[in-house]
């Protein structure tokens, strides 16, 4: 079974509490999501492999470490996942970006895919799939499915979100047990409209000022 981790770094927790507040406007919400994503990149990349490399400092020759594993692709689930991309690329600037467009039908809560555009070498890369919200898990499951359909392996995927519901975590883990999940918070439950309680509301609307 892959990793499930709640990122309890105090800066992450503090910033997440800030954006849960319904009175926080679009500008501050967007800036803070970006900052949290940057801190998440630090945590999510923690297990990336290293190899020895020779380097000559102004003082002496020495053997040190550099990244050795697969190159990274960040895959936001549109729209709300876009809010996490810049924060992640601040730490991993060479990452390529792939896009999966998905919207959740408000009545059925079922996701609908409307756009997929991925780097050509996506199957060779370590994938960080990003979306602020993991609610029923439908969108994450379909996004992982879209990547698998194109040859990507579950073990090369990490899913990173800000807030998860227990229902969504359970659904993703039972469908794709080899995908690591990182969240900043595991909230209580979903309400009758499929929103996470207490959550932070509709992440896409709050990021982009719609509604
Ligand atoms: C939100 C969110 C996730 C999805 C989570 O997107 O960003 O993608 O809902 O819900 P689920 O786990 O039940 O599938 P939404 O469909 O509202 O689209 P948006 O990002 O364009 O606002
Ligand atoms: N999508 C959101 O943006 N928020 C939720 O609480 C659930 C799904």
Helix count, DSSP H or I runs of 4 or more residues: 6
The structure class reads: alpha/beta
Q: How do the SSEs run, as a string of H and E? A: EHHEEEHEEEEEHEHEEEH
Small ligands present: 1-O-pyrophosphono-5-O-phosphono-alpha-D-ribofuranose, uracil
Share of helical residues: 25-40%
List how many beta strands DSSP finds: 13
Shape: globular
Poorly predicted runs of 5 or more residues? none
Radius of gyration: 18 Å
How much of the polypeptide forms β-strand, as a percent range?
A: 25-35%
Distance between the termini: 39 Å
Nearest-integer average pLDDT: 97
**Largest sheet features:** 9 strands, mixed
Write up what this structure looks like.
- GO terms for molecular function: GTP binding; magnesium ion binding; uracil phosphoribosyltransferase activity.
- 5-phospho-alpha-D-ribose 1-diphosphate binds at residues 79, 104, 131-139, 202.
- Its EC number is 2.4.2.9.
- Pathway: Pyrimidine metabolism; UMP biosynthesis via salvage pathway; UMP from uracil: step 1/1.
- With 211 residues, the protein is α/β, with parallel strands linked by helices.
- The protein has helices spanning 10-20, 26-44, 85-91, 138-149, 166-175, 203-208; strands at 4-6, 50-56, 61-67, 72-78, 96-97, 99-104, 111-117, 126-130, 133-134, 157-164, 180-186, 189-190, 196-197.
- The strands form 3 sheets. Strands 1, 4, 5, 6, 7, 8, 9, 10 and 11 form a 9-stranded mixed beta sheet that branches. It has a two-stranded antiparallel ribbon with strand order 2-3. A two-stranded antiparallel sheet has the order 12-13.
- Strand 9, helix 4 (138-149) and strand 10 form a beta-alpha-beta unit.
- The protein is globular.
- The mean pLDDT is 97.
